[in-house]
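Work Package 3 (structural annotation) set out to generate three-dimensional models for the target panel prioritized at the project kickoff. During this period the team completed the workflow that converts sequence records into discrete structure tokens, so that structures can be stored uniformly alongside our sequence database. As a representative example, we reproduce one entry of 164 residues exactly as it appears in the project archive.
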Amino acid sequence: MARRAFFSFHYDADNWRAAQIRNMRLIEGNRPATDNDWESIKRGGDRAIEKWINDQMQGKSVVIVLIGSGTAGRKWIDYEIKKAWSDRKGLFGIYIHNLLNRNGFQSRKGKNPFGEFTFNNRPFSDIINSYDFPYSDSKMIYACIRSKMADWIEEAINIRARYS
């Protein structure tokens, strides 16, 4: 079965890193917003942002949270996590701090964004997988993501089905 994904990430800080993962073309993802699109959506206020997220998530099998240094606790990422769980979508995270940004720099590791949520008094961070890497070479991380993404998606969908 073909899987479709919604990518959740801190746009300003991690758009470049997210594009690296999206450009792998391993799964069909949501149409990326350009800088101009995103600015236009934001000008519409919270309702416009929520509508855009809802529209983009529709028909997706899984939500992939790309975890950068400032991902945890962001209003719209939190909304996307809650919506993914509520809509019974597969959900998982990938730490992207060691992928290079457009200037060739890595960033510091961010906090797990799933730690703020619970299901039946159990933290999401104990239920939902977040993948980090034992090395810091950006090319090795990129290769690992490429080789494991399909398995991670299926695992996330299976995990969510167990908690219905």
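The radius of gyration is 15 Å.
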